[in-house]
Amino acid sequence: MKHIADLEQTLHELRTSFDENLTRPLQQTISETRKMMVGQFGREKYAIDLHYIQEIIKVPHVTRIPTAPVIIEGIINLSGEIVSVSKIHSILRVSPLNDEDSKRIVITKNLRFQTGLIIDMVHGILDIEVDSIRRTSQASHTLKNDWVDGTLFWNNELVILLNLPNLLESQEAQTG
Amino acid sequence: MAQKDIYRFFKIEARELLGTLNQGLISLETTPEDSNVLNKVFRAAHTMKGASRLVQLNTTGEISHHLESLLDHARTTPLSTAQIELCFEGLRGIDLIVTKLEKGENPETDVSEILRKFDPEHPAALEPALPANKTAEPAQSAVVGNSSGLNRDLSLKNQLPEPVKQQEPQPAEIIPAPVNQELKTPAMTEPAVQTDHNHSQTRETSAEEQTIRVDLTRLNTIMNLSGELIINKIRLENKTHTLHEIHKLARQASPMLQQWQNFVEAPELQQLIGKSGRVKEAVSQVNKGLNIQKQIQDKISEFAEVFKQDLKLTHSISQGLQDQAFKARMLPAESLFSGFGLMVRSLGRELGKEVVLEVLGGEIEVDKQILDDMKAPLIHIIRNAIDHGIEPPEERLALGKPPAGKIRLTLERQGSGFSIACEDDGRGIDHEKIRQTALHRKLKDKKQLEEMSPRDLLYLILAPGFSTAEILTSVSGRGIGMDVVASSVAQLKGNLIIETKIGSYARFIIQFPRSLMNLPCLFLESGGENMLVPLSAIAKILRITLDDIETEGNQEVINYDGQVIPLIPLNHLMNLPGRKTANRKRPVVVVHSRGERVAFAIEKLLGIKEVIVKNLGNHIKKIPNVSGATILGNGFPVLILDPSEMIRNSHGVSPQSTEPTEQIEAKVIHQILIVDDSLTTRMMEKTILESAGYKVDLAVSGEDALEKVEQTSYQLLVVDVEMPGINGFELTKKLKASQTYSGVPVIIVSSLASPEMKRKGIDSGANAYIVKGEFDQAVLLDTIQSLIT
Predict the structure, then answer these.
(1) Looking at residues A91-120, what average pLDDT do you find?
(2) Residue A68: which of B228, B623, B638 has the nearest Cβ?
(3) CB distance B553 to B406 below 8 Å
(4) Which among A64, A66, A175 has the least Cβ separation from residue B619?
(5) Among residues B255, B257, B251, B260, which one has the least CA distance to residue B297?
(6) How confident is the model at residue B536 (pLDDT cuts 50, 70, 90)?
(7) How far is CA B577 from the centre of its chain?
(8) N or C, where is chain A less crowded by C-beta within 10 Å?
(9) How far A175 CA lies from chain B's nearest CA (Å)?
(10) Looking at beta carbons, which pairs linking B681-685 to residues 24 or more positions away fall under 8 Å?
(11) Which residue of B525, B532, B619, B648 is the best one to mutate when testing the A interface, meaning the one whose CB has the most A CBs within 10 A?
């Protein structure tokens, strides 16, 4: 059993470094900018690389699936295709805001699967200088380290840059 | 005809495989060690071999067989340039044959020259000697045997009158196993005439069915878009409503306009108007405005009319578009079945058995995707039938059966779906053998096996790990097992049914919705959510009262069709809260799958819908009891349930918590006393309440009632007002004053509707006052229910 765990650990590390290399090709170059969406899950501010965002839509009618895993909120009709809607608040350990009007759904792309993330508020799309992204230690946030690519300051507030692939493919976000 | 059908898909597939092989070999020329490319090329050669053998094209089959061996060898020792050249040579040979097929020519080609070059001991040599040695020997003779078969086939065609040949759907079946000696002559003498004839005929047919291959996702996009178009059309239709309202408003102004005109045109007013220039001006302005208003009104009517027409047209166009998009995926099943005839014959021969394949229903059009996906499972089932089912001729004769076994493939429409049945008249499936194998494979222990019903035992052959080489011969043990058959059927939302009788038959029935995409469903509501259940899985829709529900062990059951079947509230299976319904007659849907039936209690039937099945996106892997979803006309997604899973999972639903509100409450039977001096009213109320599951006693007067409440403790009373002796109000007051009945609800039912009477009733302490005039059973039942719980 221990060997299997070791193997899993090694494989996981391998994949993580692979993903990192895939997603951060620009970090080596200087004063490169990346486009990010900045928004809020709960009261916290997060940034997501636009590379992983297909579109951001208002919350349409969501058909609930009661037998689905908790993070699946339901399904929506995205121009004729059915797309799942995920609520990642619980894995980010934040509680959703009450304001339904400001909620949006972030439709992902370039991931192993497509889903719509319910986000409490979208502040905007920003050009972020790669240099201004600070690699962070575990201390600055309570999330698993590989879910976070770093932090940055925006309007004097701390914004956590999420690593969407790691986050959504993590054990915590499994959909059974 | 049949020949053409056989090669139809082979031509397409072979073309693709040739492309893969060609590309792969080119890249192997530079990087001979690339194992990825090597594997890809190897697989392509292997597939080519399989496909060739299926259509009994042994020429291409042999070449690809040699290619395959060579490429297999190359995994350890990289290919030399000469060997790669040899592979290309092989490809050219296959290409030549495929080209002939594409042109509709006789594919007969002498490939011995090419094959000889593949012989390991004579690499690329031109020795004239026949390779009548080595490993290739049996295969070689097979080529000869087959080419003879083909020739014979052709000569047969020539002999038969044309129309007969065309009506015969599987000429392969009627041809006896070819006798090697007699063949060369006709084939040699007649080919020129024959090919010519064959040629022109095929040309003709190929012209009428020109096809291109379209990526399925593109076809699906067209489907989606046409679906969207229909949704949009519905939105537009809703807009006509607004248009009508505008129109109506405009029309309302019409009489006022007329009045105004009459008014100003009256001579006395004209005189008055004439006196003042300003009034005249004002009147003319108003008239002008009114004139414009009238024009607007006319334009609106005109527009509404045209809009309606256009909508109608849009409707028929979008509907037509969707129908066509559906149909684009449909093919006659024959295109799948026609390849099986040859396979059955050659496999039978290989195993020393005589087998005839009979095909029924090949003309029915089926979704291309289902046909493609069903090919492998059906081949497996047929192989099993020949290998395990059909006995050797001697054994059959000894059993009094005809020496030739029969496999019958039947495609039939079944309600809104269809089914493919494969039946052989062989040994049948022996339960004892299944038991032994299951035991041996450690799938179940002895005790479990003894407890299993014969039917469950039969389905054990679908369990993963059941079909293994040990019990299956090389023929059916190869490729895929029955578990894979079962799962591919399930993936297509089909149902696999096995029926057998030892010594007489084994039957595998695969049931399907007609098209994967267009699925007729029952639209229903449970736990406050809308859901769909495929109609093909619904045996019956019932309406039951609580009286119909019985309890067996821990399980609630109902009697259906002379059988006791479990009753499960669907909302519980779906993890949804229960909802109370006013309706005492609850709708129940009897779902069947694999011969099992379960009744699901629901809240509302909303109708029947033909829906386009969509998957839940690539994020959601598997959700219990859900097979997919669809998008309704209003644009909302709705879940489609999976009947076989519903039945499977319903076994685990614990009966204690099945119906948190209603059913448990129904177990506690409430006793109600009806107090009324009118026989009609008494009996009517009694019937209503009893049908709702209550136990009812009757009292003819207030005095009678007071006596009865002493003996029995009722949970509720329904009381009339006007009665001889103690009237309803007095009775209520007395009851409310008593210790035992102060908390028991009383409903007053009276024909007196005045507010004063109602107040009197409430003053007396009654919990509800129902007027007989507005009396309706739902009101009464609702009131009772709200008071009792």
Answers:
(1) 91
(2) B623
(3) no
(4) A175
(5) B251
(6) confident
(7) 28
(8) N
(9) 6
(10) B681/B720, B681/B749, B681/B772, B685/B718, B685/B749, B685/B780
(11) B619
Interface test with B, best of A64, A72, A81 (most B CBs within 10 A): A81
Q: Does the structure show a pLDDT above 90 at B656? A: no
Instruction: Considering only the beta carbons, identify the residue of B228, B616, B621 that sits closest to A80.
Output: B228
Residue of A nearest to B226 (CA): A80
Q: Are A101 and A57 in contact (CB under 8 A)?
A: no
Judged by CB atoms closer than 8 Å, whether chains meet at B619 and A113 is answered as: yes
Q: What number of other Cβ atoms are within 10 A of residue B590's Cβ?
A: 19
Question: Which three-class secondary structure state does DSSP give residue B248?
Answer: helix
Looking at per-residue pLDDT, the higher value among B709 and B788 belongs to B709
Is pTM beyond 0.80 here?
no
Kindly list the strands in the beta sheet with A104-108, ordered across the sheet, starting from the edge strand earlier in the chain: A53-58, A104-108, A115-119, A81-86, A72-78
Tens digits of residue pLDDT in A135-151: 766 555 667 778 888 88
Given this model, what pLDDT does residue A76 score?
A: 93
Contact A101, B662 (CB under 8 A): no
Query: What's the one-letter identity of residue A12?
Result: H
- 3-class SS letters over B565-594: EEEEEHHHHCCCCCCCCCCCCEEEEEEEEC
Q: Is A40 helix (H, G, I), strand (E, B) or coil?
A: strand
Q: State whether B620 and A61 contact (CB < 8 Å).
A: no
Token pair of B674 as six digits: 């009806």
How far apart CA B732 and CA B757 sit, in angstroms, is 14
Which residues of chain B neighbour A80 with C-beta distances below 8 Å?
Answer: 224-225, 227-228, 631
d(CA B536, CA B533) in angstroms, rounded, equals 9
Interior angle at CA B657, CA B650 and CA B669, nearest 5: 115
* Cβ-proximal residues to B395 (8 Å cutoff; 6+ apart), any chain: none
Model confidence band, residue B407 (pLDDT cutoffs 50, 70, 90): very high
Asked if A82 lies within 8 A of B616 by C-beta distance, the reply is yes
Q: What is the pLDDT of residues B71-120, one digit of tens each?
A: 888 877 888 878 888 888 888 888 888 888 887 778 878 888 788 887 76
CA distance B548 to B769: 31
Whether B617 sits inside 8 A of A79 (CB atoms) is: no
- Name the least confident of B271-280, B359-368, B462-471: B462-471
Of the candidates B47, B40, B57, the one whose C-alpha atom is nearest the C-alpha of residue B3 is B57
Scanning every residue of chain A, which has its alpha carbon at the shortest distance from the alpha carbon of B616?
A: A82
- Asked whether residue B135 carries a pLDDT value surpassing 50, the answer given is no
Predicted local distance difference test score (pLDDT) of residue A15: 77
Question: Minimal Cα distance from B229: which residue of A?
Answer: A80
Question: Chain A residues with CB inside 8 Å of B625's CB?
Answer: 67
* Mutation site for B-interface testing, chosen from A65, A71, A108, A117 by largest number of B Cβ within 10 Å: A65
For residues B105 and B340, what is the distance between their CA atoms, to the nearest angstrom?
22
Count of Cβ atoms closer than 10 Å to residue B13 Cβ: 18
Written as six digits, the tokens of A51 are 């590379």
d(CA B81, CA B86): 9
Torsion, CA B431, CA B434, CA B439, CA B445, rounded to 10: -50
